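Bit of a strange request maybe. I'm writing a small parser for structure token strings and I need a real example to test against, not something I typed by hand. Could someone generate the tokens for this chain?
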Amino acid sequence: MAGRHSAKTSKKPIVIICIIVAVIIIGVICAVIFFNSGSKPANTTSTTSQQTTSTVQSASVESAQTTLQPTESEQPTTQSETFAGETSEVSKVVVPTQGGQEVSYFNATYVPYKAVDSSTNEECTLREVFGSAFSQGVITFNSDGTFTDSVTSSSANSGAYAVEGDKIVATYSNDKNMSVKVASWEGDTPAELIINYGGYDVYFNM
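Reply from user aminoacidic:
Good idea to test on real output. This should exercise your parser:
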């Protein structure tokens, strides 16, 4: 009787161990299933977020490219369409002509040949009038209403003009006005001009 009782008692730890192992295995299986089922939606969400971000970035790039590319009506003006430098400045020059009086233009080049002190009426040299800036240049009037002055070396050596009666009203690109008297004519073109430079009358002819 004593031997049978000890055999039954020795089987209990084995049963307990089997139960514990079975519980651990079931727990591991449940944990694996839980983690697998939980990670899949996260990946799906991440993928969807990446796709959305990529779509937004692509749309932003396309929008920026569309904005940066000018339309045909907004194409930049080429140099052949707009003259640079002096020509663009001359086109903005306003000549102070008298309202209602007819103006005209001509095409001729004039060379200075003498100068007279307007206060003493004594003749003087062109070098005395212009000093070191004298470059022995000319004044050219164009039929489009513009002129160039290379008599002196100056940054403002061009502008616009108009003939009013017996005088020429000219304005340099720096807005400095110059009144030119016409001493004689050849048809519709002035033959001799008188321009006052700082108190000196300088005579020009063709």
